[in-house]
Write a structure and sequence with these properties.
- By secondary structure, the protein is an alpha+beta fold.
- It is built from twelve helices and eight strands.
- It has helices at 32-42, 44-51, 70-88, 135-155, 164-181, 185-201, 208-219, 228-244, 259-279, 287-291, 301-304, 330-340, and strands at residues 2-10, 23-27, 58-66, 97-106, 111-118, 122-126, 311-315, 319-328.
- It is elongated.
Length: 352
């Protein structure tokens, strides 16, 4: 079946819009704004998108494709619109953005259904029996007792002198936070691994993979899954992500560990390393001196354990939700573009 998929964008240069046989980008104005008002009425999230930086125009990206279903069509269109934004980033002061709300019509119909489509993100699922023993709450309380010391570091109280260890801790915690904020699992993984590497390797430049293996295994000596194979897989993913930018599942299948899986394992490792670091932050000043203490140090079981039974955290490759409304009058949205490009898109070739 033939599908036309429409994304809405902001932040494009109005004098540098593009079109091809099966796609176009056009500014929305005139009668087309009536359609935007309908969408804003039904979706507060879309209204927030259109009203952000209210003085900037709204653009529409249309993409025609032949697919088995609407979800596949949206997936194909999303790859194109995200690539379009990638390119525009080079000539824009700030990256253009596109809305999660998408319109989809079938066989060049003048009517379209509204969807939410996004790639990336995280979800946490728990069953009714989750954490009966309160282990997860106890783990967070124990970890928080150490994080209180970190707050002293941030506040730069007199008892926290400026040392290599303190500086690396500040960098690592900030980098981990940015990784946790990312909805792209691969970007989150790369940031989190950088944070972990900062606290394990310091300014070391050679044999870092071996150093990470040696020091993590010394710290997690009783955690069976912290072994050479697991750390090597994390390292290979780190190198692929760092040196080749291969962190995007929608572009190419990777032979490496999935970034979302790697990111979740890094959560466990980083929590243990931070706990260990903060427990020794007032006893040593350098990364190397810190890790000399690892062999004689024992992490609490609450810190080394995985998520408790009944709790699951998952990375989302994509999310699709069909709204309970649609719009008629797609031609109104496209009038301006079609008037200037009478043979484009209307007679577009169907691609597979």
């Amino acid at each position: 079946m033939q599908y036309d998929v429409y994304f809405f964008l902001k932040g494009l240069p109005v004098d540098r819009l593009i079109s091809g046989g099966h796609y176009f980008v056009a500014k929305i104005h005139g009668n087309g704004e009536q359609v935007l008002e309908i969408l804003e009425t039904h979706s507060q999230a879309f209204k927030a998108f259109t009203k952000r930086n209210d003085d900037t125009p709204i653009f529409i990206f249309g993409f025609r494709v032949e697919c088995d279903d609407a979800k596949s069509a949206m997936r194909a269109a999303h790859l194109q619109v995200s690539g379009l934004v990638d390119g525009y980033c080079l000539i824009c002061d700030s990256p253009p953005e596109y809305s999660d709300l998408v319109l989809v019509s079938e066989n060049q119909s003048n009517e379209a259904r509204a969807y939410i489509y996004k790639q990336g993100g995280w979800t946490t699922v728990q069953d009714q029996g989750f954490d009966k023993a309160g282990q997860w709450q106890a783990r967070n309380e124990l970890l928080f007792t150490k994080i209180l010391q970190y707050f002293d570091v941030v506040a730069e109280v007199e008892s926290t002198p400026e040392t290599e260890l303190r500086t690396n801790l500040l960098y690592a915690m900030r980098m981990y936070r940015h990784g946790a904020e990312s909805v792209v699992a691969g970007i989150g993984f790369l940031s989190k691994f950088s944070a972990l590497e900062c606290l394990i390797c310091g300014d070391a430049r050679n044999n870092k993979e071996d150093l990470i293996k040696f020091r993590l295994q010394a710290l997690f000596d009783d955690a069976g899954e912290v072994d050479d194979v697991r750390i090597q897989r994390l390292w290979l993913l780190r190198c692929s992500a760092s040196h080749q930018a291969r962190v995007y599942d929608d572009i190419e299948e990777s032979e490496h560990l999935p970034p979302a899986v790697g990111s979740l394992f890094l959560d466990q490792l980083f929590a243990g390393v931070v706990f260990f670091t903060l427990d020794n932050a007032y006893k040593t000043a350098t990364i190397d001196k810190l890790w000399e203490k690892a062999d004689a140090y024992t992490l609490p079981d609450l810190i080394t354990n995985h998520l408790p039974e009944g709790l699951m955290r998952m990375g989302l490759s994509e999310f699709t939700l069909k709204h309970n409304f649609g719009v008629t009058g797609l031609a109104v949205l496209l009038d301006d573009f079609i008037a200037r490009n009478p043979h484009a898109f209307k007679t577009a070739k169907v691609i597979s």
